[in-house]
Design brief:
Length: 387
Amino acid sequence: MFKKADIVSYSYRSIRTVAASLYYLRYDLENADSFNAREKLIPDHCRIDADFFRTYKQRWLPWSSSYLLSRSELEVYCHIGNTKSLDYVPWNVWFTSIIPALNNKVMSGGYAEKGNYRKLYGIDNEPLSFLRFLNGICYDSSGGLIHNPEEVLEQKLKEQTKVLAKPAIESWGGKNVLVFERDKKGAWKCANGEVVLSFKNLVSFYKRNFVIQEFLESHPFFKRFNPTSFNSIRVYAYRSPKDEQIHILHTLLKVGGKGSMVDNITAGGLFFYILPDGKFLYGLSHDLKKIEVVPDGSGQPLSDEPKVPGLNEIKALASKIALNAPFHRLLAIDLNIDARGIPRLIEINLSEPGGGVQVFGFPFFGSFTDEVIEFCKSHKKTNFLKI
């Protein structure tokens, strides 16, 4: 005889299962709609045939939590990247079945906490934090408690002319990043909003989690691409279950749009693929228009650009960070070289390390694709609350 609690428990599990299915199906449909809207980018002679798409679906659908794949998505990758491959990762399968298996989402927030990378990863490359407000508690850069934040903040900012505030957790796409700069009279002005720089106002804006940091100036090489943003290099680092070693999959230069303070693609930025030897392939805009010159008005071809400075140091730093993230096998790490030539860590993306590099014609996992599929098959997440 069933107890009332057993009936409720069974109903709850059933509803959760249905909710998860609908959640995944919604994402499948949204992904298909997104790429269907880009069909005009694909000439008729670049369409893929039915047999190739059928084989593609057989490779990705049977083991995943997705229900359908977008033919237009595959055609966009094959056409723009000029490479036909069955290894392109479908974006909805990435979301429903790959990232949940490779990365522990429950741990992602803690390991991506801005202003605390020194403790988490044993590095000194993070921008200096003047104040960290975490879960309603004030800390300095060393983790010491701050009891009088207004006074401390005023004191620490006396020698600064430009600072940056951003959410400490759960942020992406440059959302709610504020830049403050002193005017000629010495008053702080918010470059991209109306928020007045004070602890009280920042608490009102961010609520319980934010960090105030130094504003880094870009190395001259990167500053040319856009002088108003700290143009960062996105490094994708993968820990293979075969050897537990870190492998750098791709590097991209992210460049802010004209006048933008942030370099995020979703905020109108550009992204340029960096080949393993440090030379540029080409760039793309958010609407996937190809860019083959430096966007500084000079008309300088990307092919004539020298190798990206400091790339080996950037990759080494990314590998060190990835080795210290045991709950995550795929990290998207934003770094770059500052004006003094020092590698700096900007941000670590764990819960959603976007995989947009495939539009450059490179399947995301490359030679590791088969092992990733096998790993995700055997580590499939079934608990909807922990995906």
